[in-house]
Design goal:
A hairpin with a 2-residue loop joins strand 6 and strand 7. The chain is built from 21 helices and eleven strands.
Length: 768
């Protein structure tokens, strides 16, 4: 935002100038114009700075709701007006115009007031055009033609251009009587400074009013900005009608012009001292009648300070002698009185021109400054009102967005808690469903295995390939069946949960951010259970027994006992019950690859060894056989023994007769089913857990995606809130800055009021 200048650096600059102005000496009225010009210039300088500062602040505000184009254009217009006025202000000065008939001494009077011979003077028609004398800061003066201000002429050309009596101006451009030749005379010379020129007094000398009746052109071209008119008359003659007509025209174009009448060449009265008072009284009567009754530019009380009887020649030569320019000066009787009269004229002239110039030049500037400050304050009030309304709207928006942000966070925390509960419910549902489906598939193993129709080959290589193909077939069937079962119910349940999650999160997000969730959801792949029973691995320890073994034979019974004791299927028991003993040998084909299998094999060997040892003991001990046979014979008799032996032999013969290739295949499938069912029951819990893990992982992935999206939205919302706070801080800074500028405008109004009180009002304490 726009940086304000340090407090007090320029705010009281105009007021300080006013205080200094009050210290101006009362006997230096010309200083009042310069002081007033400086004070008002300081006010305009501060106003320019304030407008520039305001324009810079407006330039940094991009929001048209705060600063409309109308306000910007108005400030630019004020800036341009200030520039125009300040450019004009620098050219403002006090202007006095001298009029009179030819050879009345207008140029001599001006030279006397300047304490130097600046204008050509002499008997007859000496001034051929308007000559304007004004000060310059250069060490050497120069001339400028009014229609060619870019070209500077040497001061020596003045006697040729402006002097009607010069014989050297024949080759120069013709100067009409209404033409203007500007004479820029140094304000500071070797003999000292020129007080009139130093204080911005511009003096205009004119040709004789008796040379041309075209007064209106003269007035319009050269006199409308004059503050004082000085009529230089000839004491040896009366006021002519031409002189009266000129000032009557002036009074019609200007409201109450300030007119002084200098009755010059009053030194001629020294030759007729007896009639001097009556002549003076006659002149006074006519002059008073002209100023009061005809022109109506002053009243009876003021007219005495507007009419003076002087000798410009005596005053000029006396002042030139005092400066050492000449050695002898012209003096007639009563020259001291006339010198005092001339000084009295100068004093009243300076007071009048200073007061008049301040009013004519600065009153309009003061009023215009009031108007511009009023427009500036109105502009500021409009912008401040808009800024306050915008801040209120921004604060309401911030409060609403903060509420939405907090609600979103709270709602998502509630959603997260509900998600955890739903996840546990889904885990239980998956557990029940998958467990039931898995055990149903175990019960359907007979039907699945019966669908395997590959030809049975009883050879060792054919048997191995048959078992491998059977395992692959069963695995494919089980996996596809389980996937179909899970896809039916669980997939629908999971999809509904995910859709509910999406819908819930969509509701808790504000509308501008919902599209972000749509992008995440649109490209998500549908969930599908990955089920692998891996039957080949489960039947890796399957050992088929396709040798004929009587069901009630000793070997078969021992295997069943071992399977019962170990909790394994009979097909997991090796056909050679003594195989574990080979662990003590280094037969690579029978190495046990698992510690658990080794432990089970050792237990099988111990049981087999115990049973065989018992049977051998009974078989080898005749005494034992006789004892056992005697006990049985006595208990059941020989007929029962014979019938039992016959039945046992019959069963053996029946089983032996049915033992063929088809029986071997059915026996293999039955053994395979029994073995696989037992193994599947063992891995049922692991399979269920695996499915639970998949379902929970799927839900977690969806939840993580939603959480990441919501987290991004939260960060974006937080960034938006921070940005809104920054904007509000910026608006607050603008309001403070504009308030400061408005306060400066109030100080400027006070300075303008003080300026008007000090310089423009008739009751001003410093008014002359």
């Amino acid at each position: 935002m726009h940086t304000l200048p340090a407090s007090g650096d320029s705010t009281h600059r105009g007021l300080h100038s006013l205080k200094n102005a009050r210290k101006a000496l009362d006997n230096e009225p010309l200083l009042r114009f310069r002081e007033a010009k400086k004070v008002l210039g300081d006010v305009y300088g501060e106003l320019k700075d304030n407008v520039a500062e305001l324009e810079a602040v407006y330039g940094e505000i991009k929001d048209e709701k705060i600063v409309a184009s109308e306000q910007r254009q108005e400030v630019e217009a004020i800036r341009d007006s200030i520039k125009t006025i300040m450019d004009t202000f620098q050219r403002d000065n006090m202007k006095v115009v001298f009029f009179g008939r030819t050879s009345n001494g207008k140029s001599t009077t001006i030279n006397a007031m300047l304490h130097e011979k600046v204008l050509p003077q002499g008997m007859g028609h000496t001034t051929c055009c308007f000559l304007q004398v004004q000060g310059c800061d250069e060490e050497k003066g120069y001339l400028q033609l009014d229609d060619n201000e870019d070209k500077k002429l040497e001061m020596e050309m003045l006697s040729k251009i402006g002097d009607a009596l010069s014989n050297e101006n024949e080759d120069l451009p013709a100067m009409g009587q209404d033409s203007l030749l500007k004479i820029f005379h140094p304000k500071q010379t070797e003999t000292g400074e020129n007080r009139l020129l130093q204080n911005d007094v511009v003096i205009l000398d004119s040709p004789g009013v008796d040379l041309s009746p075209e007064f209106d052109g003269w007035i319009d071209k050269h006199c409308l900005d004059a503050d004082v008119f000085v009529l230089v008359s000839n004491a040896e003659s009366t006021l002519t009608q031409a002189e009266k007509n000129f000032f009557l025209r002036v009074s019609k174009k200007l409201s109450k012009p300030n007119v002084f009448i200098l009755n010059n060449r009053w030194d001629a009265s020294a030759a007729d001292m007896d009639n001097i008072e009556s002549v003076k009284k006659q002149h006074l009567t006519r002059f008073r009648q002209f100023l009061v009754d005809e022109l109506e530019v002053c009243n009876e009380r003021e007219v005495n300070d507007r009419i003076f009887f002087v000798s410009a020649r005596e005053v000029l030569e006396a002042r030139l002698k005092a400066r050492g320019i000449i050695t002898r000066n012209y003096q007639a009787d009563g020259h001291g009185t006339r010198a005092l009269e001339f000084q009295n004229f100068e004093r009243h002239f300076e007071q009048c021109i200073s007061k008049s110039a301040i009013h004519t030049k600065f009153e309009a500037h003061n009023r215009r400054a009031h108007e511009m400050i009023g427009k500036m304050r109105t502009n500021l009030n409009t912008v401040l009102t808009s800024a306050a309304e915008q801040r209120t709207n921004l604060q309401n928006t911030l409060n609403e967005n903060t509420r939405l942000f907090n609600e979103c966070r709270v709602n998502f925390s509630t959603f997260e808690k509900a998600y955890r509960e739903q996840t546990e419910r889904l885990r239980a549902e998956v557990h029940l469903k998958v467990s039931a489906d898995f055990f149903e598939e175990i019960a359907r193993l007979d039907a699945i295995i019966d669908r395997f129709e590959e030809p049975f080959d009883g050879s060792s290589a054919g048997m191995t390939k048959y078992k491998q193909d059977l395992a692959v077939f069963v695995d494919k069937c089980l996996s596809s069946d389980l996937e179909a079962r899970c896809t039916g119910g669980l997939m629908s349940r999971i999809w509904n949960l995910e859709n509910d999650m999406f819908q819930y999160v969509t509701k808790i997000l504000a509308e501008p951010y919902q599209n972000k969730l749509e992008e995440v959801w649109r490209y998500r792949a549908p969930f599908k259970f990955s089920i692998c029973v891996d039957v080949p691995a489960l039947v890796n320890d399957f050992h088929e027994d396709l040798e004929f073994r009587f069901t009630f034979g000793l070997h078969a019974m021992i295997r069943r006992i071992i399977a019962y004791r170990s909790g394994q299927p009979v097909t997991a028991i090796n056909a050679n019950l003594l195989t574990p003993l080979s662990l003590q040998k280094k037969n690579a084909e029978n190495v046990v690859r698992d510690e658990n299998m080794a432990a089970a094999a050792e237990e099988q060997a111990m049981m087999t060894q115990m049973v065989l040892t018992s049977a051998a003991f009974l078989a080898n001990g005749s005494l034992g056989v006789l004892v056992v046979g005697g006990i049985v014979y006595k208990a059941v008799g020989w007929r029962v023994i014979a019938i039992g032996g016959a039945a046992y032999g019959g069963l053996y013969a029946w089983e032996r007769m049915r033992w063929n290739s088809s029986a071997k295949e059915q026996h293999l499938k039955e053994q395979f089913r029994s073995h696989l069912a037992a193994r599947m029951q063992h891995v049922a819990a692991a399979h269920t857990t695996h499915c639970e893990t998949q379902a929970i992982r799927e839900m977690d992935q969806v939840f993580d995606g939603l959480r990441a999206t919501v987290g991004g939205v939260h960060r974006e919302m937080k960034a938006d809130l921070d940005e809104q706070k920054t904007v509000i801080d910026g608006v607050d800074s603008v309001i403070r800055t504009l308030g400061t500028i408005k306060g400066k405008a109030v100080f400027l109004l006070r300075n303008l009021e003080q300026f008007a009180s000090s310089y423009l009002r008739s009751d001003s304490p410093s008014s002359p």
